[in-house]
Amino acid sequence: MTPRYVTDDSELGHAIKVKILMFGPLAENVGAREIEVALEEGTTVMQLAERFQLVNMIDSGLRVAIDGTITSNLESMLKDAAEIAFLPPVSGG
Predict the structure, then answer these.
(1) 23-36 pLDDT, tens digit each
(2) 86 and 54 Cβ atoms separated by less than 8 Å
(3) What is the pLDDT of residue 20?
(4) Which helix (DSSP H) or strand (DSSP E) does residue 28 occupy?
């Protein structure tokens, strides 16, 4: 792989900051209910799920809400100051 050299600031990626909300067993596994993280601009919901090792849970019913709206498009890019909630499946009977 050829190294890429940046010649000026316009070639640098921009960072965004998002707030992540975890509920139920997710919060216990991660050790927090609320986390703020800095990400590279263009990061997708799926990449965020990968970072927190939640991808396997998506097939089990994990749902994601961005700014209070449930989404099924995990390839959507996150925006600065977005609030992402990872919602575990509800169990019971």
Answers:
(1) 988 999 889 999 99
(2) yes
(3) 97
(4) helix 25-30
Cβ–Cβ < 8 Å for 46, 71 = no
Beta bridge partners of 35: 20
* Stretch (H or E) spanning 87: strand 83-87
Q: Residue 11 above 60 pLDDT?
A: no
14-87 is classed CATH 3.60.15.10? no
Cα distance between residue 40 and residue 78, in whole Å: 9
Q: Are 67 and 82 in contact (CB under 8 A)?
A: yes
| Residues 3, 8: Cα–Cα separation, whole Å | 16
Q: Model's pTM, two decimal places? A: 0.80
- Decide if pLDDT at 91 tops 80: no
Beta pairing, strands 63-66 & 34-40: unpaired
Q: Strand order in 15-22's β-sheet?
A: 34-40, 15-22, 83-87, 63-66, 69-71
